[in-house]
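[job 4471] stage=fold_predict status=RUNNING
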Amino acid sequence: MPTISVNRDSLFTALGKTYTDDEFQNLCFEFGLELDEVTTEKQMLIKEQGDQAGSSSGVSEDVLYRIDIPANRYDLLCLEGLVNGLLVFMGKKSPPKYNLDKYEDCYSLHLTPSTGQIRPYAVAAVLKNITFTKESYDSFIDLQDKLHQNICRKRTLVAIGTHDLDTIKGPFVYDALPPSEIKFKALNQQKEMTAPELMELYSNHAQLKQYLGIIRDSPVYPVIKDKNGVVLSMPPIINGDHSKITLNTKNVFIECTATDLTKAIVVLDTIVCMFSGYCEKPYTVQQCKVFAPDGTYQLYPALKPRQETIHVDKANSYIGIDVDGNKIAELINRMCMPTVHEDSLLTVQVPPTRHDVIHACDIYEDIAIAFGYNNIPRRESRVVTCGAQNRINKLTEQLRNECAHAGYTEALTFTLCSREDVATKLGRDIKDVPAAHISNPKTLEFQVVRTLLLPGLLKTLAANKKMPLPLKIFEIGDVVLKDEAAETGAKNERRLCALYCGRAAGFQYVHGLLDRVMALLSTPYTPNTGYSLKQAEDPAYFPGRCAEVLLQAKVIGKIGVIHPNVLTAFELTNPCSAVEINIEPFL
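[job 4471] inference complete, writing structure tokens
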């Protein structure tokens, strides 16, 4: 769920009323939002960077409201959208009507066939005669960043470029060229650089380095130029310095390049709807022709409301209320969707700001929000049910208690780990490990979903080496294994793992715990019908001191003394023994 920070005084000025923190929190709740924190820019910097950050000059002491926004409400990710939504919700204004100015051929955008190799779609629009203040300019930039992180999926799906239209000449060309043929002065740089030089420059940039991998290995890089060959941007990395927008910018050219056309349309609609209110003709946007490589064109943005029809009785039934159609129409109007009631039917106009409304059930949800969840009467369930704990969770809780009674301390480790943790450190090749890999890992510590509980417990031991020996810890949790037969390509498996660390390996202690668990599960030590042990070889365990745990002749886990090489890899010096079994077969 994204969080936005808005200046409290600017927010109250725009709303035309001053609230206490509790009053505004209640208003947010009624609107389906949550006031997460009341803070200041200085306090936020201290929290993120330490005390020295807060001592720097120029840091604002203004009160900030940090508000949690639902992930699908892109129209609320900036002050302008939030204020508009709240004012309409409180009945202080009507939902704005968006108008379109006729396109001009000089602002058209032409796509070349080569763009199909990397980012095949683009949309564009123009905001004419706009007036920026410092606050609205910052909000304009911040909204782009919020959209990049949210619906744009860190620019992989959509990359936004905004340009001072008065510094460039249309029509514009969206092309894809070999990196060596791209040369321009990037935003806030002092000299022109080639694309490879820029990629090298930004490889250590705190914000931009995370986007380089999107295009780095492509034979061509996307680039947008104007009529005179001036480079506007190299999406999704950086804009050109020549066309950067400032507080004095009056006309803004907005382009969005994308791998997903639908997402690009949503992003463009959101930006122009939020900031067209600052234009000389409020809520008026100039369309652009976007020519496909085959010569056909589309006009963007469309900004056409979509019509949905719902039934009054269904709305009442689904939500659990009993109000007339006129009242429901009023409730939907408060959620920025103009509605007309006629003959038990509600005709709803879904505006271009509400791309989150894709089905009638989304309208029902907005009716419930406007009505007030606390105002919906409670009623008994009409279905006879018998609630019970999930069987695997019940078994997990029971085993947790028994492992603790046996003297073991429970650990809770990360579900994500590095490739080395589940492979190299255990003497295995990552290619032989059925691990689900994270496509864009945030850090080297979180690259795959764990396939074993053992590495997490070994890391826990390494972090607690100062504790007196022996150390006995256990964990019961899920691992994830690749499985081509599963619908998602992977499956969860609930496991129990216990680890003993002392002056001696203590194999007898983990073996004793295994016997105790099996006794509690009414599983005797008998081959074929109960459980048994069978000697095995595993690079993670000491040769000759490893065994497979079998249940009715099927392998469910392993037990043994940890190999010295594994201990060294996890920075441990004392011998250890471990047992890890799958507990799902006991259900």
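[job 4471] summary: The CA atoms of residues 535 and 547 lie 4 Å apart.
[job 4471] exit 0
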